Amino acid sequence: MSFLLPATTLVLVVLGALCLFMAMEHDRRTQAIRSRQTAGRPVLVSGIEVQTATQTQKS
DSSP assignment of 1-59, as one string? Predict the structure, then answer.
């Protein structure tokens, strides 16, 4: 019985770390996909249209 708490804690910490790294990888992939989709389009920041670096180079 004294082994149950440390084992459960270890399993939960490992599971939490796994979920954290999966979320970070998903965020990285999502940002890469979105940056490819919005390349060359103006970006809206708080309702204000802002030119990206690629747009200013083309102008």
Answer: -TTHHHHHHHHHHHHHHHHHHHHHHHHHHHHHHHHHHTTTS-EEETTEEE--HHHHHH-
